Amino acid sequence: MTRKRKSPVEDIGRRARRLKRARDDPGASPLRGLGVFGMIGWSIAVPTVGGAFLGLWLDRHMPQDFQWTLALILGGVALGSFIAWAWASKEGKENGSDPHDD
After folding, report:
1. In Å, how far from its chain's centre is CA 68?
2. Positive or negative: CA dihedral 24, 39, 33, 78
3. Degrees (nearest 5) of the Cα angle 44, 48, 51?
4. pTM for the predicted model, two decimal places
5. Cα dihedral 75→77→80→81 (10° resolution)
6. pLDDT value at position 1?
7. What does the pLDDT look like over 18-47, one tens digit per residue?
């Protein structure tokens, strides 16, 4: 039950191949997931808050039968959702994980 000892050349070659595989395909990073989560959150939050502030200003200066604030908050959510969807779709295609690529 003795194991055949590998030569140093084989050992070095095996280690080099393993390092090259790790460098070529580093795998998913937990920090990347947090970054994606943050990017999607900000892409929805910024248009929504911007719409709220613009709506408040319009309600004070140009009153209508409807509330500008509510309309522009909903518009900001819709715009932000579209931006987040487009960004996530683009990232998915760049990383080769698009399920519709078949």
Report:
1. 31
2. negative
3. 145
4. 0.60
5. -120
6. 53
7. 888 878 876 767 777 777 778 888 899 999
Tell me the two tokens of residue 31: 């920090």
The DSSP annotation for 77-100 comes to HHHHHHHHHHHHHHHHHHTT--TT
pLDDT in tens, 1-15: 556 667 888 888 888
C-alpha 97/C-alpha 102 separation (Å) is 11
Fill in the DSSP letter of residue 5.
P
Q: Which residue from 69, 75, 40 is spatially nearest to 56, judged by alpha carbons?
A: 69
CA 29 from chain centre, in angstroms, equals 12
What distance in Å separates the CA atoms of residue 36 and residue 99, rounded to the nearest whole number?
A: 18
C-alpha dist (Å) from residue 62 to 53, 67, 73: 14, 10, 17
User: What's the sign of the alpha-carbon dihedral 50, 56, 58, 63?
Assistant: positive
